[in-house]
Amino acid sequence: MGASIDIGRDETGQPVCIDMEELLATRLLVQGNSGSGKSHLLRRLLEESAGLVQQVIIDPEGDFVTLADAYSHVVIDAGDYNEREIARIGARIREHRASVILNLEQLELEAQMTCAAAFLNALFDAPREHWYPALVVVDEAQMFAPSVAGDVPDPVRRASLSAMTNLMCRGRKRGLAGAIATQRLAKLAKNVAAEASNFLMGRTFLDIDMARAADLLGMERRQAERIRDLQRGCFLGLGPAISRRPVAIRIGATQTVSRTGTHTLLPMPEAEPQDMRTMLFAEMEADALPPARPARPRPIAADELIRAIAEPEPTTQPAIFTARQEAEDAADAIDSEAVIVAVLRDMLAEASASTQPDALLYQDFSVRCRMQRLVRAPLDLEGFRQRLALARGGVFDPADPAWAPAIDAAARLPQDMYAPFLLIARAAMEGQPCPDDAALGRAYGTSSPGRIRRLIDYMEKQGVIVVRADFGGRRSVGIPELGLSTGVE
């Protein structure tokens, strides 16, 4: 065998090894119900191979971030960056052969899938000179390559599935070796699972999953019951990198542990019921604030993280924290309103701003604000949506008294209609022709002429505007509350 690692012991107590060179060429699929030991298996695999190959870990639950305490992995907290920055980081990872952990625990499922797709696509699209061998571990792979449509929008599901398919089907020639883990084979897209040649099957109970696992292991259907009887931390292994015949493996111990809580029983507290009640409700009225949480470390800006990936010397990390402290010290002197206006102008200057969802734009807004040395985003999501709607209509300063009547009139409409209405109001205030359908569509986030017509009809039914058209089809729009009308279009 080539560069082998010890993964555990077989039924006779003999070590079972995985040939890493063969694994990189043939990929790995791990399956097991929750609690079967999948994460422990992946952690053992990562620890034993840390000195042999570059590692890239897609971590939806933050289970693997503790690897960075003992090894040279860089943790990327995905919630601190936007899609474009994640893609830039992914490209630099391949260039500098950095081992990283993409921590997705801060994100909702839809954002996790979008982020993972952007990250994997960046790894996949790296230039040929950066096609170094890398082990790409994806935990809970059924989330990123679902077999059926779920609650997420179809474009998000397709993008994530496409990225996972590229990793498992076409990644080998680019040096990317997928090692994916799933709770149920039935939930994982078949074209993703089918590309793995090595299998480690843990305990599972559903007949459909046992049957598929037995088929992959080359076992007869009547032998599938063996999979149900596996103990926690035990797996059946098969594949060119593991064994030519199915072998039972008890996974060995790990040096690091997950941040998740223990599953062992602990002694119950011995306090009397009255004492417990006193502790639970002590000073409830006097102190309404919740217990203080440990302060979360300040997120590292994308450019600083990229420099950290490119610079392996240990002096890099203190420099990052020094720069971060200087940013915090200077944050109080920054005019947050000026930053909001500048950031919104920059965002709306990009063509993609009209098509991206508000949640993704808010992440971009938060990162841009931090890049302007603000300690945290000055607006919450709801406040950002309102300011974004006003900015799309050309109102970047809602406190300007000249816009107060128009904003009051817009309040009678749904928030997503603020922008097209304010464009019409601006034209009326300046005596300009009414904006054409294309301009209103960009503000409303659509290119459909039918939706624009329905938008105009709705605003007119609400009494916010009055549309006048002559026999030549030329249109002007009046705004009763302002006592103004646009020019003829």
UniProtKB/TrEMBL annotation:
It comes from the Bacteria. GO terms for molecular function: ATP binding. Keywords: ATP-binding, Nucleotide-binding. Residues 10-110 form the Helicase HerA central domain. It holds the Pfam family DUF87. InterPro entries: ATPase_Atu1862_pred (IPR014588), HerA-like (IPR008571), HerA_central (IPR002789), P-loop_NTPase (IPR027417). This is ATP-binding protein. It comes from Blastomonas fulva.
